[in-house]
Amino acid sequence: METINGILLKQMLESGMNHLSNKSGEIDALNVFPVPDGDTGTNMSLTFSAGVRDALNVASDSVSDIMKVLSKGLLMGARGNSGVITSQIFRGIYQGVEGLDVVNGAQLARALVTGSRVAYRAVMRPVEGTILTVVREAADYTYAYAMDQEDVSCEAVMAKMLEESKASLERTPELLPVLAEVGVVDSGGCGLCTIFEGFLSAMRGEVIQPQAVEKRGETAGAAMESEEFGFCTEFIIRLSAHGARNFDENSMREELATIGNSIVCVRDDDIVKVHVHTMEPAKAVRMGRRHGSFIKLKAENMQEQHDNLIDDAAMEAAAASTVAPKAERKPYAIITVAAGEGLKAMFQELRCDHVINGGQTMNPSTEDFVEAIGKVNADHVFILPNNSNIVMAAQQAATVCEEEDVHVIPSKSIPQGLCACIMFNPDVDVESNLAEMNEAIANVKSGQVTYAIKDTTYEGLAIKAGQFMGIREKDIVVSVEDKVEAACRLADAMVDADSEIVTLIYGEGTSEEEAMRVAAHIEETSDVEVEVNNGGQPVYSFILSVE
Fold first, then answer.
1. How far from 341 is each of 317, 508, 533, 534, CA to CA, in Å?
2. 252 and 114, same structural domain?
3. Can you give the CATH number for the domain in which 114 is found?
4. Is 49 left (phi over 0), alpha (psi -120 to 50) or beta?
5. pLDDT tens string 482-539
6. In a designed cystine with 446, which of 45, 274, 413, 503 is the match (CB 3.0 to 4.6 A)?
7. Same structural domain, 435 and 452
């Protein structure tokens, strides 16, 4: 293709979105650590899909108009560091094509460079050997190639961008030794290459389609034979501040039409009523969830023999998102992220105003934080992400809410978040609280016990799939068959003569008896006080905090 117009751009975006979704599991598997938390592909797919779905509903055929909506959708839907960086890449690309209805090859090459530069500026300490390296090297080489051509087509530019992206991706282990040790390439860079593959395929006339997912309890033939879609899905949502500004009834109807029929969508002020017949009620629920909180939600099976088909997890998440109206204005509020009812209760006891359900494998989006900021309704808001992969999304939300006084305290673990909450004092000023809370997260030691999902070697330590690993901060210090032994040996590596308090939080699949055995070991081998709590967290059998 010589140029890119709005029609082709939408095809490219759809193809890239589908290809990324199809490959997200493979990208997740590139996780360096052998822990069950690899989510780069999932985060990038959710981020990109959030923006693309909005972009596909743009009535205009102008490249600039479509990219503007895409950029905004990616910004709000960004999850995890990879998702945030992806949103910034396409924010820069939009800046490069702003005002253009049609884009030629040279303009595309310049826009790709702008995308690279904007992404780098968004990261405080860029790490080479990551998605940032891939986009920078590929964009620079592609721009040089385009400028050397008398008249270069958009297809040629994208083909060169993909070629150079793949070459850069293969070099990432040379820049990050941990990738070389485990024998993988950078997962974020792989996700970006996947998007570009989808783009180029569409430019060559082949839009990549989503891979079919077999529905539980239903054959494809049964779905084709049914005149009515299987679930009468209805919900009422109260629009968030973001939703109130951006919700469009026609766009919502068009989006629902991709998964069902018998569609009704009406808005009255900040209330929206939706009705749709669909075989994918969970998708309809997610479409609504982006715009606000649920007041009422139901999905009734119109085919009685399949009354358990609906995605329970999605419905539970939707129900959990039903919240009370905005709280009265107050001086301070704390927003934190945690998974597990026990952990949620611990944070609430420490005066957290809003706990976003999430953590490893469940990274909240920028929009989740924006909505939470609006709900707490405070003069000063502190956000505790409690995970290194969530910090950037929280920071992006703070930037979006520029009219609010929002401070992200970069807690990278649950213990850091809990210690920061302990140090919060509602009777002192913002600067004093920030100093105390940041000092708290710097002085606590964090550890986790989880199981290995693959055989590997980490810094000379042989790890077998199914073994329990003790992880101190970012280092795997032990890998054994028994989780209690793993926790005990992890504690031995964390507790020293200066330690005073150990907090032991046990999660799903771990009994109180097992936790008490670990606590007894710590007390027998050291002079510290041990507190035991049931966190109920997934993924991690134990979380240890040493102060």
1. 13, 11, 11, 9
2. no
3. 1.25.40.340
4. alpha
5. 999 999 999 999 999 999 999 999 999 999 999 999 999 999 999 999 999 999 998 8
6. 413
7. no
